[in-house]
Design brief:
Strand order of the largest sheet: 7-11-10-9-8
Helix content: 25-40%
Distance between the termini: 50 Å
Number of helices: 8
Order of helices and strands: HEEHEHEHEEHHEHEEEEH
Structural class: alpha+beta
Radius of gyration: 19 Å
Number of strands: 11
Length: 231
């Protein structure tokens, strides 16, 4: 699709998943946007077009760049759990203009408070036309994102104790407890979240570089493994 966009001189390309829920974009230079780039670009376009004081709904695992872009356009953030149901519920509130998942799902609640890739694409085209800018220009101005993900095997019986010990050990830190335990510290963060369906614990972490993000993630991976051994 990227090659087709470039060869045809199109302004943008799009790919929809088979269920019509996830949207993946290609800019006018043929660059296939990552999920983080797509989300940040759409938030930017929404911010450029909307009145101040509106809200966007995003999972608590969203990178710091989401807050940076939202702050630039005076958009408030409604933090949600990672579940689609919670994102849809928060997106249905009257002051929310966009819901954006971690995996390409976008909600424009003025149309429908659920994922709809075609509706999202139509909205993006309209917002882009109103902005008077090319998608590649929007993407080039986006802040960089360095988020890593680890999955730690965790017996079912250890999950509850693990999270209690984690909260206790981090009680003096800046914590967000919307879903799992998110620790924010010195421009980095880590999110520890037991999987509801599998015997694993997820760790997401962000840092100023990929190396820093991996170091933060490994710090909590070690803590989880130590808790499992002693638990």
């Amino acid at each position: 699709v990227g090659a087709l966009v470039q060869a045809s001189g199109a302004h943008m390309g799009a790919v929809f998943d088979p269920d019509g829920e996830q949207l993946f974009l290609v800019d006018d230079g043929g660059h296939v946007l990552s999920e983080d780039e797509t989300r940040l670009a759409i938030i930017t376009l929404v911010g450029m077009a909307n009145e101040t004081g509106k809200k966007i709904a995003v999972p608590v695992s969203a990178p710091l760049a989401v807050q940076e872009v939202a702050r630039e356009y005076d958009l408030d953030i409604s933090w949600t759990k990672l579940s689609s149901s919670d994102l849809m519920e928060k997106s249905s509130k009257p002051d929310v203009v966009l819901g954006a998942s971690d995996d390409g799902g976008y909600i424009f609640p003025s149309f429908l408070p659920t994922y709809d890739a075609i509706a999202a694409f139509v909205n993006v085209m309209g917002l882009l036309a109103r902005s008077g800018r090319r998608l590649s220009e929007i993407v080039s101005d986006l802040p960089k994102v360095h988020v890593v993900h680890e999955a730690v095997p965790t017996p079912w019986e250890n999950k509850g104790l693990l999270m209690r010990q984690l909260v206790e050990s981090l009680r003096d830190k800046d914590l967000v407890l919307v879903d799992g335990v998110k620790v924010i510290e010195d421009g980095t963060w880590a999110l520890v979240l037991p999987d509801p369906d599998r015997p694993i614990t997820h760790v997401w972490a962000e840092g100023p570089s990929a190396r820093d993000a991996r170091a933060v993630a490994q710090q909590y991976v070690r803590q989880i493994r130590q808790s499992i051994r002693t638990g």
